[in-house]
Design a protein that fits this description.
Blueprint lengths: L4 H4 L3 E4 L5 E4 L2 E4 L6 E6 L14 E5 L3 E4 L3 E4 L6 E3 L8
Parallel strand pairs: 1-7
Antiparallel strand pairs: 1-2, 3-4, 4-5, 5-8, 6-7
Length: 92
């Protein structure tokens, strides 16, 4: 099965340890030297109806991905998620 990076944005991420729906992929992290996908990035939850912005993005390492299906991505993370602030786009 082949999957493009753009196709990942249409897939919902679910944690199989908790059964929690994490959201949709908003970005990926790629190692530019080796060309390997390092992690997927999920947007943080909205704060107070989105008025006060979002929480930090969730970084899911590629090793935590268990299965990529047609509609969903199953991940296995039992502890805390690594979070990171959203960076501004450098190029427009």
């Amino acid at each position: 099965m082949q999957c493009r990076i753009g196709d990942l944005r249409c897939k919902e991420v679910i944690n199989i340890c908790t059964g929690m729906r994490m959201g949709f992929v908003c970005d990926v992290i790629v190692n530019t030297v080796t060309g390997q996908l390092v992690a997927i990035v999920l947007p943080g939850q909205c704060r107070f109806f989105g008025i006060f912005g979002r929480e930090d993005d969730i970084i899911v390492p590629w090793d935590c991905i268990r299965r990529i299906g047609d509609d969903i991505i199953l991940i296995e993370v039992s502890g805390e998620f690594r979070r990171e602030k959203r960076r501004e786009k450098l190029f427009v």
